[in-house]
Each structure stands twice: as C-alpha cells, then as structure tokens.
Amino acid sequence: MDIPKGATVAVADGERLNLFRNTGDEANPPLTASAGDDVTNDNRGSGARHQSSSANPDNSQIEEDSFATGTADLLNRQVLGGQIENLIIIAAPRTLGELRKHYHQKLTAVLVGEIAKDLTGHSAQEIEKAVGAA
C-alpha cells in the first residue's frame, strides 16, 4: 500500500498511540513522528459496572477498550478539524476492531487503509516496510 504525501499513520495498541506523517511523497515516504494530543480513556463501556466473569471483560480489557475508544475520538476530532486528510491505521487486531466501532463517517472517508498488526514501539522504518508490504 502506498502512503500518500502528507498522510497520517496512526499506530496503536490498547495502551499507546504513536502518530507519524509522511513528509515525502508516495515514492519516497519517510515517516516522521508527530506530536499528538493525549488520549483520554474516560469513556468506559458498560462492562465497567459489572464484576469480571467469562461473560464480562476483566479490568485490563476494559482499560484497553477505553483507550481504543479515546484513540478513535482523537482521530475523529483531527479528521473533522481538517488536520488529517489521509489516514492509515495500524493496530493490534483486537484494538483495531474496537476502533472501527467508533469511526466517524468522515474518518472512514479519509481512511486509506488498515493493518491488523501490533507495531507500537517499532521504528518508523519498520512501519514504512509494513505499510509497503500491505
């Protein structure tokens, strides 16, 4: 997959979000780390009110899902604010599933692609390779 010029690449798992921007062009896409806003995970699902069991997620899973919701909210705000025109999301498979539940219609419109892989903590070059191989 190509990374359009100026595109934002969001790399997330249930605990961290790293944002990168393509500062080159599609043929030569050097990703540069971008300063991002803090993700708020105040929005907890209904599972936060229930005791943990096989039918209800444990506290750690609730925290990860809340972080994914906060990440989606942050990306939605940036898309709606015109800060993101093209977006590629790379996230751990479970996190990606949770993110998708909260995409705004305009975020879906600027979404260039998704990769279900945990690449948080990897270098920009490794992320470039993963996107190029997708």
Structural description of this entry:
The protein has a five-stranded mixed β-sheet with strand order 3-2-1-4-5. The protein has a single domain (8-37, 55-133), classed as eRF1 domain 2 (Nucleotidyltransferase, domain 5, 2-Layer Sandwich). The protein is globular, with a radius of gyration of 15 Å. Mean pLDDT is 85; it is low at 44-53. It has helices at residues 59-80, 93-100, 105-110, 124-133; strands spanning 8-12, 17-22, 31-34, 87-91, 111-116. It is 34% helix and 19% strand. The protein is an alpha/beta fold and 134 residues long.
User: Do you know the CATH architecture?
Assistant: 2-Layer Sandwich
| Main sheet overview | 5 strands, mixed
Could you report the average pLDDT, rounded to the nearest whole number?
Answer: 85
Q: How many helix segments?
A: 4
The CATH superfamily is eRF1 domain 2
- Overall helicity: 25-40%
Strand content: 15-25%
The strand order across the widest sheet is 3-2-1-4-5
Total discrete domains: 1
In CATH, the topology is named Nucleotidyltransferase, domain 5
Descriptive labels:
single chain, Nucleotidyltransferase, domain 5, 5 strands, alpha/beta, 134 residues, Protein required for attachment to host cells, five-stranded mixed β-sheet
Short description:
This protein has 134 residues and is an alpha/beta fold. The chain has four helices and five strands, in the order E-E-E-H-E-H-H-E-H. It has one domain (8-37, 55-133): Nucleotidyltransferase, domain 5 (2-Layer Sandwich).
